[in-house]
Amino acid sequence: MTATEPHTHGLFSPPAGNDDTARGATMIEAINAALTEEMARDRRVLLLGEDVGKRGGVFGATKGLYAQFGAARVLDTPIAESGFTGFGIGAAMLGAVVVIEIQFVDFIMSALDQIFSEMAKMHYRSNGDVRLPIVVRAPIGGGVHGGLYHSQSPENLFIMPGLKVVMPATPADAKGLLKSAIRDPNPVIFLEHKRLYRSVREALPTGDSTVPFGIARVARAGTTLSVITYGAMVHEATRAAEIVAPEGIDAEILDLRTLQPYDRAAILRSVTKTHRALVLHEASKTGGFGGELAALIADEAFMELDAPVRRLAAPDAPAMPFNSRLESAYMIDAATIAAALRDLAAF
Amino acid sequence: MADTHGTATAARPGLSPITFPQLGESVVEGTVLQFMVKPGDSIEEDTLLAEIETEKVTAEIPSPFKGTVAEYAVAVGDTVPVGTVLLWIQTGSAAEVAAIVAAAPPAVAEPETDTLTTAMTDAAPDAAPTPAPTPQNGATASATNSTAYREAPDAAVRYSPAVRKLAKEFNLDPATVTGTGAGGRVTRDDMTKAYEAKTQATPTAPAAIAPPAAAVSVTPAPAPATPRPQSVAPSTPAEGDLIPMTTLRRRTAEALVKATQTIPQASTWVEADVTDLVRRRDREKEAFRQREGVPLTFLPFFVAAALAGVREYPVISSQWTDEGIRLKRRVGMGIAVSTDAGLQVPVIHNAGDYSITGLARAMNDLITRARTGKLKLPDIEGCTFTLSNPGSFGSTRTLSLVRPGEAAIYSVDAIVERPVVRDGGIAIRSIVNLGLSFDHRIFDGREAVLFLVAVKNWLENDAATISL
Known about the structure:
The complex is a heterodimer.
Chain A: H1 5-8, H2 27-41, E1 45-49, H3 65-69, E2 74-76, H4 81-93, E3 97-101, H5 112-119, H6 122-125, E4 134-140, E5 164-166, H7 171-183, E6 188-193, E7 217-220, E8 225-229, H8 233-244, E9 251-255, E10 258-260, H9 264-274, E11 277-284, H10 289-300, E12 310-314, H11 324-330, H12 334-346
Parallel strand pairs in A: 1-2, 1-3, 3-4, 4-6, 5-6, 8-9, 8-11, 11-12
Antiparallel strand pairs in A: 5-10, 7-9
Chain B: H1 4-8, E1 15-19, E2 29-35, E3 42-43, E4 48-54, E5 57-62, E6 67-72, E7 79-81, E8 85-90, H2 94-102, H3 115-121, H4 138-142, H5 147-150, H6 161-170, H7 188-200, H8 206-209, E9 217-220, H9 247-262, E10 265-273, H10 275-292, H11 299-312, E11 318-320, E12 325-327, E13 333-335, E14 337-339, E15 342-344, E16 347-348, H12 356-372, H13 377-380, E17 385-388, E18 408-412, E19 416-422, E20 425-439, H14 445-461
Parallel strand pairs in B: 13-17, 17-18
Antiparallel strand pairs in B: 1-8, 2-4, 2-7, 3-6, 4-5, 5-9, 6-8, 10-20, 11-12, 13-16, 14-15, 18-20, 19-20
Helix pairs in contact in B: 6-7, 11-12, 11-14
């Protein structure tokens, strides 16, 4: 059932025409470029997933690749995430570099056994003999009127030894990180915020440039407090920082870029500078990745703290509501973040 | 301080605790020398209850309220942490107190079994002692205290780790800082601003360094008539008379051991010709005494000479820290004063602000109060550089020990007439030996000698002419 749903949502389909490359590339274009370049560079790279071939993916990430590289390297699969993820593991064991597209991260659940029990553990289980150069790409996140089954943020599920987890916030990072992910000899979960696919444009670096894992990006330098976040929240936090800047609150925004590994040194450096930390993510609070970040700060920067480490995250509701008013109430936006920044600065 | 009643102590209905007061930032414990009241005594507000001794001072504790002494909580001679309950005062009804006194000592032990094992073993619930109720918070405890304690900083206030780190780094008590955070909380920024204000602007306000229990009278430890705790004397004396250890003696010993163990010290001396100064003083001392009411000694000149040297070599008044060398340009000039109780070092704060007359007055006041046991805490805190004056006893060459927390100590020996060569002939001149022992980590012999030469030059060229 899952694969049929996107077809009913024109919202997720690429807009017809209206190419605006003069203003830089969108994240979806950056991802397409990374895939194209890596497939051209390395013949072992193959793509598989639902509708990634002739249709070019429901979001258009694989557009043109079927025509360029052929049916042997760009494979349309049945609607069976567990099956084609296992297929990808087998192909990787036999020497392929596999990029799996999960149409929405919400649909990955049936493949978790393959991912957790096989993909994450193969290298360890084989005593280092078998490496699985697999990238699992999946659109994540909400705020796009996608409802319960197309808006989840389960990135915390993948924080597990044996998996790397990447969550870019900008087109250039998406391209550079995806190239790094494809070249990584071990499994990488690559989570693309679907709201960022076409909402942000950025000139892409020319040439074969990659972004290494585990190096955070200072999205905005500041001195009053640190916001540690990733994905789409980087942009909301930056907007919030501009809202409160005239009030004398100079927020530093740290974009983690990768959650596993994550840049502990950058976090501690920033907190040591500002002495106040807000951990922010779109996923719900309890059990979220923010707990890990807050614990790190408490563990290793305790004596630097002038205020409790605060977490701002979605409410512990079972899902992102579909009703647009409820959805906007659920989503963390710049105004909500600004209020949290004021509160933390005043502590 | 007030709430320390509550932190270590169970509340007892009808009874109010009198605790060991906080007598200065660094004081953590002290000894009960004597109780001045006994159980059953009726007391008024300000009746003296007990005499206590700390490393810095002895003090008498006045009652903050009216009532009846219920019981002692510690014994004479006990050394206890600050905040420990010393005695209980009945402020409630007599019936309540009678019930309390008749009952067993208040239970403070935790129940030995937890709820799970209690449930599993089906133990009688009353088998475990009931924990005594504790005061809800600092406000509850401070409500039992008089105005004497009301201005004390609330030790229950929790400071953030960053603030505590800065408190240590700046040696700045957050309780003295005005908070701008939520609910008046002291923030890291508040600490930084207060520290900047303290180091850059005016000298520290007296209130900031005054002991919290301002009404407690303070005397140097120990007063000669202080009865010694009985329990200190050994039951079978060893050969030779035992001189009981006073807290001051012990602390002096600890400081000196620390100084010799932690500070690599070196010393240097120069001789200064103070003939002109001696003549001037002989000429002016009578008029000075009549005019100013205090004697004109050599000491103010030696202090002024040292301050002139510090102006030229500021590192002489500094402190070794792990982060770096912290200059103390506002010199707190410590004057080592020998008293019957031991060595006291009262401090002339901002010594550079004084004229010779001002120094003479300040020193006369401090030395008099040191010898009569009237020093207050601010008088002995904030020393950045010390003058030792063993010349007053006739010493002609002194090797002093740098005190912990300071960079150097300056000694002035006796002024003696000596035959010296002047202009190719032999002359009789008044010569004084000046010494400097210093922390060799902070500076080298060069600075030490050049400092002493600057002092010598001032004494030889300026002391005889500077206006008083």
